[in-house]
Amino acid sequence: MDTEDAMPLLTFLPPLGAVLIWSGNMTINQLTVSTIRQIGASQASIFINLMPVFSALIAMAFLGEQIALFHLVGGMLVLAGVIMAQTLTRPLRRLPATPTRLDRGPR
Questions:
Q1: What gap in Å lies between CA 1 and CA 7, rounded to an integer?
Q2: Can you tell me the distance from the alpha carbon of 85 to that of 65, in angstroms, rounded to the nearest whole number?
Q3: Which residues contact 74 (CB under 8 A, 6 or more apart)?
Q4: Cβ distance 42 to 89 under 8 Å?
Q5: Helices within 47-102 (DSSP H only)
Q6: From CA 104, how far away is CA 107, in angstroms rounded?
Q7: What CA dihedral angle connects 48, 61, 73 and 50, to 10 degrees?
Q8: Tens digit of pLDDT for each residue in 1-39?
Q9: Could you tell me if 75 and 53 are in contact, meaning their C-beta atoms sit under 8 angstroms apart?
């Protein structure tokens, strides 16, 4: 295949790539909005912390990036934080109120 035969194909690929990227972004945005509507913004915001963990995993799988010890420690801290945020929903115990000088009234 010489250059003249490939020219129509080369002029067609950039717009097709742009449409595919745009439709992929729109799909992700729609999934994000529907998830936030379903589980609530406070629950969905916790999982944004997982984005760097998944980015590192994707970079390792597809780009051949090397994962260092600090990546693993950071990822484990993020996972621990997300797990704690999801499971520890009971409020902390309050200490009993001690009367202050103002609570006793005038002398």
A1: 10
A2: 30
A3: 52
A4: no
A5: 51-63, 69-87
A6: 8
A7: 10
A8: 555 665 666 676 777 778 777 787 788 888 888 888 998
A9: yes
Which amino acid is present at 25?
N
Q: Which residues contact 47 (CB under 8 A, 6 or more apart)?
A: 82
The rounded distance, in Å, linking the Cα atoms of 49 and 47 is: 5
Q: What is the pLDDT of residue 27?
A: 83
Q: Where are the domains of the chain?
A: 1-39, 41-88
Q: CA torsion sign, 10 to 13 to 15 to 17?
A: negative
Q: What is the CA radius of gyration of the chain?
A: 26
> Can you tell me which residue has the tokens 């972004």?
25
